[in-house]
Specification:
Layout (H helix, E strand, L loop, with lengths): L28 H5 L14 E3 L6 H14 L8 H9 L9 E5 L5 E8 L8 E9 L8 H18 L10 E8 L4 H9 L3 E12 L16 E5 L5 H11 L11 H4 L12 E5 L4 H6 L5 H9 L3 E9 L5 H4 L3 E9 L8 H15 L4 E7 L6 H7 L3 E12 L1
Parallel strand pairs: 4-5, 10-11
Antiparallel strand pairs: 1-2, 2-3, 3-4, 5-12, 6-11, 6-12, 7-8, 8-9, 9-10
Helix pairs in contact: 2-3
Keywords: Acyltransferase, Ribonucleoprotein, Ribosomal protein, Transferase
Pfam family, one: Acetyltransf_1
Protein name: Ribosomal protein S18 acetylase RimI-like enzyme
């Protein structure tokens, strides 16, 4: 499944508050979450409800792909992605998942609620799931969503940000082409659209811009991804997206997720071999993890394009493509043409491997100029999605 972490749509990725949160809330996250002592029951003829188990991955894969087809999503999940989700150490399989199964053990409804462990300035509970198309129209979806909202409130009240006075959101995502009934279900529950994303693609049969490496007398190098540069790339991503609305840092564990489709051969970075460490350490924009890495003499990634190959999506979209999961430039290094360099290198590698298109998603209000950059590189809009929230 291709995701839009290139623009961090949760999110997703200014970063500290949404437009309706101009000042810190008066109450803590836990006070505003008002967590219920018990969760509402979900009623459905012939179904029993339980948490998840890691061996449920094939059944969860099947229902999620049925939901994706019914809701006109331009992607499909892979078994490896589901296995990664169920293995995530911060997810409570018994309490954060709800599965509705019939007497044969077949799965007819699925719900998942999680709070990303890296959140620092916005507390988020992200809700995913749905009801198998053959059981829609029975009211199960509304009750399942009510369960998710209640569990989301519990998760927020127990999160690391529970005692903080920061924005708190219940979050769902929806494709623009999803059935109207899905949007109405969210709206009746109190969700409202907060952000919009464009699904872009670029025909790789057209001439690709030349890969312009940094000048030979520069301390910057354009290089392919290697394992030892993965952690420096995570730190670069966190710096690059700190000024993006709603974005939160990626921890080591969340960064390591969703890598089953990762393509090192399509992933390019710019490294600064001789950064001005004193200037960076004195800058208020340098985060603590980057500062520690600089003091340790670790490599400094300053621009990157992380790419994946989502084979399951090819048939749905009708073409083969390489997907840019995440693209960014450290703020201290912007304005040097580094984003076009890593993008062009990635596109050329995708084309060399026989891909027909390059694809990505972008926040339509991205503050870094990414929308204009992608247009200049030949990307065109193919579809879109949106993030909806209940702001507590």
């Amino acid at each position: 499944m291709s995701t839009a972490d290139a623009v961090d749509p949760a999110t997703t990725d200014s970063a500290t508050a949404g437009p309706s949160d101009p000042s810190p809330p008066d109450l803590t996250v836990a006070e505003r979450a008002a967590p219920p002592a018990t969760l509402p029951e979900v009623h459905a003829d012939g179904l029993t409800w339980r948490g998840a188990r890691r061996e449920d991955a094939p059944a969860v894969l099947t229902i999620l792909n049925h939901l994706a087809a019914a809701d006109n999503a331009p992607f499909r999940w892979s078994l490896a992605e589901i296995e990664e989700r169920l293995a995530a150490p911060y997810r409570d399989l018994d309490r954060d998942f709800l599965l509705g199964v019939d007497g044969t053990g077949a799965l007819h409804a699925f719900a998942d609620v999680h709070t990303p462990p890296g959140d620092e300035t916005v507390a988020r509970a992200i809700l995913q799931g749905g009801v198998h198309p053959t059981r829609r129209g029975e009211g199960i979806g509304r009750e399942l969503l009510a369960w998710q909202i209640a569990r989301g409130r519990q998760k927020l009240a127990a999160s690391a940000l529970a005692d903080r006075r920061v924005p708190a959101w219940l979050v769902v995502h929806m494709e623009d082409e999803a059935p109207e009934t899905l949007g109405h279900t969210f709206e009746r529950a109190g969700f409202a659209a907060q952000r919009y994303y464009s699904d872009l693609r670029r025909d790789l049969s057209r001439p690709i811009p030349p890969v312009v490496a940094p000048p030979s007398d520069s301390t910057l190098r354009l290089v392919p991804w290697t394992p030892e540069l993965d952690e420096p790339t995570r730190l670069a991503r966190n710096d690059a997206f700190r000024d993006h609305w709603g974005s939160q840092p990626q921890t080591r564990e969340t960064w390591a997720e969703d890598r089953s489709a990762f393509m090192p051969a399509w992933t390019y970075l710019v490294v600064d071999d001789a950064p001005d460490v004193a200037a960076l350490l004195s800058s208020p924009d340098t985060d603590e993890e980057t500062a520690a890495a600089l003091r340790a003499g670790d490599p400094l990634v300053v621009a990157y394009q992380v790419a994946s190959k989502y084979v399951e999506d090819f048939e749905v979209r009708g073409f083969t493509f390489g997907y840019s999961d995440n693209v960014g430039v450290r703020r201290a290094y912007r304005g040097r043409g580094l984003a076009p360099a890593v993008m062009a290198a990635g596109m050329r590698a995708m084309a060399d491997d026989g891909m027909q298109y390059a694809a990505l998603d972008v926040d339509t209000e991205n503050p870094s100029g990414a929308v204009g950059l992608y247009a200049a590189l030949g990307y065109e809009k193919q579809g879109g999605s949106r993030m909806l929230t209940i702001e507590l």
